[in-house]
DNA sequence: CTCTCCCTT
């Protein structure tokens, strides 16, 4: 019963709308395994609805023709056939061939656009919008129906569209949601030769996708010169050449230094002057001069001052105030000389140019993975770029291009400009790739594979931003960053601002950093502009300056009409268009934050809250003022504050920079003063600790030490007190055991420690009394005893106490005397060294000290002042029994030589004499004299006895104590 | 101590 029904469904699926197909097929497969009547009914409805939708699309197919004047119209049949026959084709032809607008129509002719949408991508928003308008016009419909477009901030697309024009960035963003790009049945990637980051990523991705989606067609357009490489990347896809509708351009090479002439080489400015002279002889016509940068343009406009009454000298670069840029598109009566940067090469088309002068140079942005700095150096442009420049004068009639270099130079140049992917930081691309689980980036089929070190560096930045972990997996932060349509550094600032409660301020600032600066400085009104902008300026932070500007403009835009705001912007030197961009970006990000449930703070945030959040995205762009005006940054990089900064005159000790770029010098642009402690806190995960000097910190009963903190080589804190156990628990444990337990340098109330300590003191006292060093087991043995007993995590008094209280085993730490006394010293005669001195009824304490050479060495008798007169000094001569034999020996040895020789060997005489003496009875020397005479018959005369050279420890010391115990 | 190409989610 269900089987034929399922077959019918499978058949009907073929006629469904592409975007539904895969989803419905999956549902059908599930039901085939596990049939359910109710769900089958629902599926049937869904299939019918989708079929109907597709039929509607088919019915909406408009009639169209190809404009006869366009070259591409001649080949439309050939191209349509190629599309039907191949999955990928390349169409190349120069500008003016009409390929951009006609290709979508050719796709319709080839039957595309019904099952799914024909997606057409452009590098620039303005172009996408203009092309969709043009297409809608040619197809006699309104934008938004058959033809839609979608760019940032503006979406006029829907599933009704047969053709959807968008920026390549939009297609990439859609990839995040729909990895299969199921809503499209055809994709046209236009201007692929520009090889932007977006295009290279798309072309790599599409190569993989085409294997999985055999129904998807891909058309790539490119300049002829680049076509082969791209075709090769797509398994030698066919290349269809479409002739351009351009006029011939005569090339003239006028190098600065002519090898055939003895003249001195010209400088660039002189060369421009003579080129203009030469071209004027060819007849009237506007001139477009390509120069590397603003500086050269300013200089050239000065050099060409003398031509001003005959010609309009017009600068043209991206940052040019909008009023000045408009003059380019509204020609006056005079001949125009337009001094332009690369903007005029691709982004802007200057109408009516007859002559081009090409300096052959451009500022090229290159990111150095070695120094992590972006460089903007003047370089020689490629052949492709030079040809593009020359082509700018062949659009309305034959033109002449003067190259300020020679033909050999041209022929020796690189054929193509290096694609952006080889010379930029890849963090943002990698984040997107990881987010859509593209697997190993090394395996990704890029047309030009970026250097492994560049990929590694991109991961490095993502690690620093905590977007990926050590194993290159996306973290929770990384997932959020991938969903924010902004540079990962800036996204990170926003996420950090949630924690510091400064989202409102940081949102305004990050969007300002992502957009272009709306502040204008017209060449001749710089001072006036600076004065107007001065009131927003903050002396500590350029970021705050941006926020001040934001607040002002927001307030004004709420209060004023559109026109009034425009006028205000003009008066205040604010580029209104850029302000709109900033505002739109802000709105878009605010919405994205809302989706992530990140709330904006109502209360103003303070400086620290704002800048700590900003710092989290700029941790590798910090600097320390090392010399006057010169900063030392990460990896020993030195840099200067950009002169346009509000901090330029008052440089702070520590700063962070939104950008670090090398031009004539390494400059930090948009900077703010920071506290080094913030770096320690915000950059915790990147800080390297260099610990040193562990020591026993008696007051805290732990091991203290010091550490130096560095971040990417920069010393953030030269010397910080630390708990050493955190960095080296093993060593700390050793030090703890030695000082706290072995040496007893720990005050505490734990009985086991107290008892062990007093036991050790007893044995030490024994050593003092017996004047020996070898009774107590040595320190190492005591250390080993504790080390064996203590768990590895005991590193301080506190951790010891915790363990001791919780662990019955800890009682085993109790020492006994046998453990403490060395085996060979167990038979020490202690009685001969009494601790109490007795005289009649008097009992006084005797203390012992063993430190030869010291005043305190020997035996000390403590006598209260009150009993001092009662002390029998004669008795004290006998010192203590344990020392008397040594004292006798010393006395014998102290005798004059002639006397002394009667008692050789002296130790034997001392021993025998001692045996015969009665300890403590009468005067020691008198008794000794008697005994010696008994033994030898020799009488020692009284003056021969010397007492002054006797070692100190053989004389009783007296310590008199007054009533207060002093 | 003094200045920078261009895009985009």
What report would you give on this structure?
With 966 residues, the chain is of the alpha/beta class. It has six domains: 2-59; 71-241, P-loop containing nucleotide triphosphate hydrolases (Rossmann fold, 3-Layer(aba) Sandwich), CATH 3.40.50.300; 249-418, Rossmann fold; 484-613, no CATH class; 618-684; 836-961, no CATH class. 43% of the residues lie in helices and 18% in strands. It has 38 helices and 28 strands. The strands form five sheets. An eight-stranded mixed beta sheet has the order 4-3-5-2-6-7-1-8, with helices on both faces. The longest helix is centred in the N-terminal third of the chain and has 23 residues, at 37-59. It binds one DNA strand of 9 nucleotides through helix 8, helix 14 and strand 14.
Q: What does the oligomeric state look like here?
A: single chain
- Mean pLDDT comes to 88
Number of domains: 6
Radius of gyration: 46 Å
Q: Helix proportion of residues, in percent?
A: 40-55%
For the record, give the distance between the C-alpha atoms at the N and C termini, rounded to a whole number.
Answer: 114 Å
The DSSP helix count reads: 38
The class by helix and strand makeup works out as: alpha/beta
Strand content: 15-25%
User: From the 3D coordinates, which CATH architecture of the largest domain would you assign?
Assistant: 3-Layer(aba) Sandwich
Q: Report the count of strand segments.
A: 28
Give start-end ranges of low-pLDDT stretches.
none
Described by the principal axes of the CA atoms, the overall outline is elongated
CATH superfamily of the largest domain: P-loop containing nucleotide triphosphate hydrolases
Largest sheet: number of strands, sense, barrel closure: 8 strands, mixed
CATH fold category name of the largest domain: Rossmann fold
Class of the largest domain, according to the CATH hierarchy?
A: Alpha Beta
Biggest sheet strand order reads: 4-3-5-2-6-7-1-8
């Amino acid at each position: 019963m269900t089987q034929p029904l399922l077959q019918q469904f499978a058949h009907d699926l073929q006629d469904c709308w592409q975007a539904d197909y895969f989803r419905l097929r999956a549902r059908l497969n599930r039901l085939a395994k596990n049939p359910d009547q109710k769900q089958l009914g629902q599926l049937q409805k869904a299939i019918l609805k989708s079929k109907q939708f597709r039929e509607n699309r088919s019915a909406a197919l408009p009639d169209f023709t190809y404009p006869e004047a366009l070259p591409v119209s001649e080949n439309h049949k050939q191209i349509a056939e190629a599309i039907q026959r191949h999955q990928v084709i390349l169409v190349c032809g120069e500008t003016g061939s009409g390929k951009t607008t006609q290709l979508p129509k050719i796709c319709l002719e080839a039957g595309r656009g019904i099952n799914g949408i024909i997606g057409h991508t452009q590098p620039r928003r303005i172009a996408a919008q203009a092309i969709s308008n043009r297409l809608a016009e040619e197809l006699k419909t309104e934008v938004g129906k058959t033809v839609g477009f979608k760019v940032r901030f503006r979406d006029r697309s829907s599933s009704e569209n047969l053709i959807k024009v968008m920026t390549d960035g939009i297609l990439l963003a859609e990839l995040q949601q729909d990895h299969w790009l199921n809503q499209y049945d055809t994709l046209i990637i236009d201007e692929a030769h520009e090889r932007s980051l977006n295009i290279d990523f798309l072309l790599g991705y599409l190569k993989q996708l085409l294997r999985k989606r055999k129904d998807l067609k891909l058309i790539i357009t490119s300049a002829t010169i680049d076509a082969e490489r791209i075709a090769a990347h797509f398994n030698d896809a066919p290349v269809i050449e479409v002739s351009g509708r351009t006029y011939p351009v005569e090339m003239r090479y006028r190098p600065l230094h002519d090898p055939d002439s003895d003249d001195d080489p010209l400088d660039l400015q002189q060369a421009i002057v003579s080129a203009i002279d030469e071209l004027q002889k060819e007849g009237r016509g506007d001139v477009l001069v390509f120069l590397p940068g603003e500086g050269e343009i300013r200089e050239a406009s000065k050099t060409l001052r003398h031509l001003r009454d005959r010609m309009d000298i017009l600068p043209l670069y991206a940052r040019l105030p909008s009023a000045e840029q408009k003059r380019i598109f509204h020609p006056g009566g005079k001949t125009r000389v337009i001094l332009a940067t690369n903007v005029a090469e691709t982004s802007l088309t200057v109408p009516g140019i007859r002559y081009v002068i090409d300096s052959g140079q451009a500022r090229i942005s290159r990111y150095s993975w070695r120094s992590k700095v972006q460089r903007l150096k003047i370089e020689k442009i490629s052949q492709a770029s030079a040809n593009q420049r020359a082509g700018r004068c062949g659009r309305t009639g034959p033109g002449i291009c003067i190259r300020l270099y020679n033909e050999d130079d041209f022929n020796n140049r690189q054929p193509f400009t290096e694609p952006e992917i080889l010379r930029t930081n890849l963090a943002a691309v990698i984040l997107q790739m990881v987010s859509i689980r593209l697997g190993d980036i090394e395996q990704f089929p890029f047309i030009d594979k970026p250097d492994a070190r560049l990929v590694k560096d991109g991961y490095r930045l993502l690690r620093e931003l905590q977007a990926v972990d050590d194993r290159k997996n996306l973290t929770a932060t990384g997932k959020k960053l991938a969903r924010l349509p902004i540079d990962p550094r800036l996204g990170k600032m926003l996420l950090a601002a949630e924690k510091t409660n400064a989202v409102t301020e940081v949102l305004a600032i990050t969007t300002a950093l992502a957009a272009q600066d709306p502040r204008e400085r017209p060449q001749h009104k710089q001072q006036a502009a600076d004065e107007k902008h001065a009131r927003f300026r903050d002396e500590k932070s350029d970021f705050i300056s941006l926020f001040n500007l934001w607040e002002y403009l927001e307030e004004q835009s709420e209060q004023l009409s559109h026109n009034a705001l425009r006028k205000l912007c003009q008066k205040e030197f604010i580029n209104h268009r850029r302000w709109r961009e900033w505002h739109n970006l802000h709105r878009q990000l605010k919405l994205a934050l809302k989706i992530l449930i990140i709330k904006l703070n109502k209360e103003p945030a303070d400086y620290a809250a704002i800048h700590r959040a900003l710092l989290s995205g700029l941790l590798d762009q910090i600097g320390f003022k090392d010399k006057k005006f010169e900063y030392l940054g990460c990896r020993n990089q030195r840099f200067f504050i950009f002169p346009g900064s509000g901090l330029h005159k008052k440089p702070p000790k520590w700063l962070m920079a939104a950008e670090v770029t090398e031009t004539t010098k390494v400059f930090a642009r948009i900077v703010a003063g920071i506290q080094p402690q913030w770096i320690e806190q915000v950059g915790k995960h990147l800080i390297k600790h260099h610990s040193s000097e562990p020591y026993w910190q008696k007051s805290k009963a732990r091991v203290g030490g010091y550490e130096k903190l560095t971040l990417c080589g920069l010393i953030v804190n030269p010397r910080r007190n630390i708990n050493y156990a955190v960095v080296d628990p093993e060593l700390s444990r050793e030090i703890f055991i030695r000082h706290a337990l072995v040496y007893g340098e720990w005050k505490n109330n734990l009985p086991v420690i107290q008892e062990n300590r007093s036991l050790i003191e007893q044995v030490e006292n024994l050593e003092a009394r017996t004047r020996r060093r070898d009774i107590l087991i040595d320190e190492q043995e005591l250390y080993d005893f504790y080390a064996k007993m203590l768990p590895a995590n005991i590193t301080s008094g506190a951790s010891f106490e915790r363990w001791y209280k919780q662990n019955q085993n800890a009682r085993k730490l109790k020492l006994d005397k046998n453990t403490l006394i060395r085996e060979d010293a167990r038979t020490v005669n202690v009685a001969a060294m009494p601790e109490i001195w007795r005289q009649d009824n008097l009992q006084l304490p005797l203390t012992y000290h063993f430190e030869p050479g010291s005043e305190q060495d020997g035996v000390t008798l403590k006598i209260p002042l009150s009993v001092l007169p009662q002390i029998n000094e004669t008795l004290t001569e006998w010192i203590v029994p344990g020392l008397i034999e040594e004292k006798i020996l010393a006395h014998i040895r102290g005798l004059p030589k002639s006397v002394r020789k009667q008692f050789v060997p002296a130790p034997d005489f001392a021993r025998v004499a001692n045996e015969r003496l009665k300890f403590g009875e009468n005067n020691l020397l008198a008794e000794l004299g008697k005994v010696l005479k008994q033994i030898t018959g020799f009488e020692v005369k009284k003056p021969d006895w010397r007492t002054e050279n006797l070692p100190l420890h053989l004389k009783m010391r007296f310590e008199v104590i007054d009533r207060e115990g002093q």
